[in-house]
Input
Amino acid sequence: MSGNSNVGQASVYEAGDQRNPKQSEVNKSEPYNEGKANSHNLLDSKDERSIANRLAAAERQEEPEDDLETRLGKKDPTLPAQIHGNEPSRGAKIDAELQAEEEEMLKNKGKA
Output
């Protein structure tokens, strides 16, 4: 059996995509960034960080602020749809009714 094969295309046997680039082609001025942001769980019990480092990381972690629509939706569930010119959904209407009832109950109890 001969070493030459006529099976397949020539591109199948080319290994250009499998070879490492030359060092002269690699841009060494760019730092190599490992990992991605938020790829580690800060509360991982198997992490080998000290308690002080965990506390410092927890203090640095900030709560994301809500956008305008989320804040308005907490005040009145029908507002985000009305802002966009749409009719509020049935669920939003029910949520608004329940919220109004709860506020009325709190006023009756003298807490609001």
